[in-house]
């Protein structure tokens, strides 16, 4: 069932891509122009998605609740990490991010904390000091 | 003679202290990443590409390090297959069939020894093949015109994974989606903004490396909670650390046969190491499984697929270097690296940058020797690392890939794009789409479009030019054959489905 839904979504995306691309024109350059290739590819995608609609595979195994919750939490942690990376600086945000991930992967709280701190500091030292890759230190505190 | 002189020149490049150190580091890191459950060569190379950027290496040195990581991952993949019954990566799946039963019988060291020798055999065979075959192919490929290249790209997409038996509709659709993603951004020929929806961040399109790390590494993290949550069993006991020399050469015939089969599978576009391992194993089973011992811990059942997948991964370098068309996911990632270092692989690479190509080939010979040392006397280090808790290893892998991507552009937008690709990759994997065609599409889309447009400029917009060259016709013929074959298999496997 889910295959049919995905097929339908891809079909709609492909058709709208063909439609959006019809406006891409250049008055100079090659005979084919910027629109033709994306349109060919999108048309092919539309045709293939029909195959998915007509001959779907059996549904994948349904997700267990706790696993799904952890997956969503992981995505939240990763997104939060990216949002905080520049404001909080690399060492602090990485400590928090690594600690939270370690918790999600089943570490005890104090172990997660120690892991986070160790990873946050050592990666900062390795990449910033040793490899010379400038990483934000702590802009929120030191401006 | 020509080749031997070039190879000597290559060794002169490869044995400089820096390159040698990078090779050893690459072998070690590769084996480690390969050994971690779920993290294969694609992840290993993708995560460490940004590290290579950060180290500000010469293109040649970066390529040496990453190729050694690639070879190392292929060696390492077998360790968790044998010790944990969890393949480190897809090509190592076949190794679990006989490797784990053997380890359960207390012969883990022997199984690791046999597979190390088989890996060495396969990888060395493939490197020899690369040495002698790649220059020939490069010479032939100089005559390829834009229409021929277009045909070559069509073949790469049409045949990728086509013989592995997953739903061929999905494989083709994945490739086409990759091509569609590749057209996002400014059209290089005319400057038209395509599918950017007015966002300046998208004008450069999606950086293939960002997409690859997202698709493979981030989706692996999300996938982890489902696939590994239940396997609580620790690794089996290693027993005695070093197997006897004689034991390691059991099934050596199988390793040699596996090498040849794997190499051929690797050179074929889109087939890659998984197929190499699969075909080697099943051929060996038909040839020599007289007593039905395969699947219960037969040494030949370890030697054949390990030689096969290592030979295939070496063979896959040939189309990547000589034609610029990668034959596997990992070589696709390495192509992304070369392109971002402003090196265009293809037939001219051998003429214009012999140091780079031959330095790489020489480094691969050295890597094989280093890997043999790492994987027989020192294999205990890696098996011990396997018993480190996942809550320690996984977050480190995540953080290294985030730093790496951040280091490319210093933009948090790229990190969000990466997470987005991670979600996409998870969804695709869940639905049994292969990710490699998506990456290939994203990576090769621009070149494919370029060659098409160049061919049509030559002909003045006449599509007939695509079918005028005999080389292109041969390629299309082969493609059609492979497509019929793979759809035929798929139809037979699922009679009346849908």
UniProtKB/TrEMBL annotation, chain A:
Any idea where the DUF1468 domain is?
Answer: 6-136
Q: Which domain of life is it from?
A: Bacteria
The answer to whether keyword Transmembrane applies is yes
Q: Where are the transmembrane segments?
A: 5-24, 36-55, 114-137
Keyword Cytoplasm among record annotations: no
Could you say which residues form the signal peptide?
none
Record keywords, A-Z: Membrane, Transmembrane, Transmembrane helix
Task: Show the Pfam families listed in the entry.
Answer: TctB
Instruction: Give the protein name, as stated in the record.
Output: Putative tricarboxylic transport membrane protein
UniProtKB/TrEMBL annotation, chain B:
Show the Pfam families listed in the entry: TctA (PF01970)
Q: Which residues cross the membrane?
A: 7-33, 45-73, 111-137, 149-166, 173-193, 205-225, 254-279, 323-344, 356-382, 388-408, 415-445, 465-490
Q: Does the keyword ATP-binding apply?
A: no
Q: Which InterPro entries match?
A: DUF112_TM
Does the keyword Metal-binding belong to this entry?
A: no
What keywords tag this UniProt record? Answer: Membrane, Transmembrane, Transmembrane helix
For the DUF112 domain, which residue ranges apply?
Answer: 20-440
UniProt-recorded name of the protein? Putative tricarboxylic transport membrane protein
Query: Which organism does this record belong to?
Result: Salipiger marinus
């Amino acid at each position: 069932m889910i295959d049919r839904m995905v097929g339908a979504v891809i079909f709609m995306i492909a058709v709208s891509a063909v439609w959006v691309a019809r406006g891409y024109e250049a008055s100079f350059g090659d005979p084919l122009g910027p629109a033709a290739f994306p349109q060919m590819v999108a048309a092919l995608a539309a045709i293939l998605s029909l195959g998915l609609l007509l001959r779907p595979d059996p549904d994948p195994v349904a997700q267990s609740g706790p696993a799904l919750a952890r997956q969503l939490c992981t995505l939240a942690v990763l997104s939060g990490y990216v949002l905080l990376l520049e404001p909080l600086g690399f060492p602090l945000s990485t400590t928090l991010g690594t600690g939270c991930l370690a918790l999600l992967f089943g570490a005890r709280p104090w172990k997660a904390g120690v892991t986070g701190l160790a990873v946050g500091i050592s990666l900062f030292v390795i990449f910033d000091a040793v490899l010379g890759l400038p990483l934000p230190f702590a802009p929120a505190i030191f401006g | 003679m020509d080749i031997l002189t070039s190879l000597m020149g290559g060794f002169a490049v490869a044995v400089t202290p820096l390159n040698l150190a990078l090779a050893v580091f690459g072998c070690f890191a590769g084996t480690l990443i390969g050994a971690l459950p779920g993290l294969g060569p694609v992840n290993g190379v993708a995560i460490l590409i940004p590290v290579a950027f950060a180290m500000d290496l010469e293109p040649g040195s970066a390529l040496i390090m990453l190729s050694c990581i690639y070879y190392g991952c292929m060696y390492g993949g077998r360790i968790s297959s044998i010790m944990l019954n969890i393949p480190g990566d897809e090509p190592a799946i076949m190794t679990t069939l006989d490797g784990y039963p053997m380890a359960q019988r207390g012969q883990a060291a022997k199984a690791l020894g046999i597979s190390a020798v088989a890996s060495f055999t396969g990888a060395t065979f493939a490197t020899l093949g690369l040495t002698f075959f790649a220059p020939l192919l490069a010479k032939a490929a100089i005559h390829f015109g834009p229409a021929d290249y277009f045909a070559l790209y069509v073949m790469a997409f049409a045949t990728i994974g086509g013989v592995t038996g997953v739903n061929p509709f999905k494989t083709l659709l994945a490739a086409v989606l990759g091509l569609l993603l590749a057209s996002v951004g400014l059209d290089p020929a005319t400057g038209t903004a395509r599918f950017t929806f007015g966002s300046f961040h998208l004008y450069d399109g999606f950086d293939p490396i960002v997409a690859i790390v997202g698709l493979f590494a981030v989706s692996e993290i999300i996938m982890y909670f489902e696939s590994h949550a239940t396997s609580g069993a620790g690794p089996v006991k290693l027993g005695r650390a070093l197997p006897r020399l004689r034991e390691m050469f059991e099934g050596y015939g199988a390793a040699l046969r596996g090498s040849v089969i794997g190499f051929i599978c690797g050179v074929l576009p889109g087939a890659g190491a998984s197929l190499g391992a699969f075909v080697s194993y099943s051929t060996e089973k038909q040839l020599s499984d007289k007593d039905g011992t395969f699947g219960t811990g037969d040494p030949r059942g370890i030697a054949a697929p390990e030689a096969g997948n290592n030979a295939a991964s070496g063979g896959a370098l040939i189309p990547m270097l000589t034609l610029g068309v990668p034959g596997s996911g990992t070589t696709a990632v390495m192509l992304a690296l070369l392109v971002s270092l402003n090196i265009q692989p293809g037939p001219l690479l051998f003429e214009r940058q012999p140091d780079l190509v031959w330095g790489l080939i020489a480094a691969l010979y050295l890597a094989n020797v280093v890997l043999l040392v790492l994987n027989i006397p020192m294999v205990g280090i890696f098996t011990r690392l396997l018993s480190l808790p996942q809550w320690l290893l996984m977050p480190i892998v995540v953080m290294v890939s985030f730093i790496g991507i951040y280091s490319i552009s210093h933009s948090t937008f790229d990190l969000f794009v990466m997470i987005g690709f991670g979600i996409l990759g998870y969804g695709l994997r869940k639905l049994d789409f292969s990710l490699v065609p998506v990456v290939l599409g994203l990576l090769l889309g621009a070149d494919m479009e370029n060659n098409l447009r160049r061919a049509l400029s030559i002909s003045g917009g006449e599509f007939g030019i695509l079918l005028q060259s005999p080389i292109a016709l041969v390629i299309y013929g082969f493609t059609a054959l492979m497509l019929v074959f793979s759809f035929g298999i798929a139809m037979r496997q699922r009679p009346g489905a849908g």
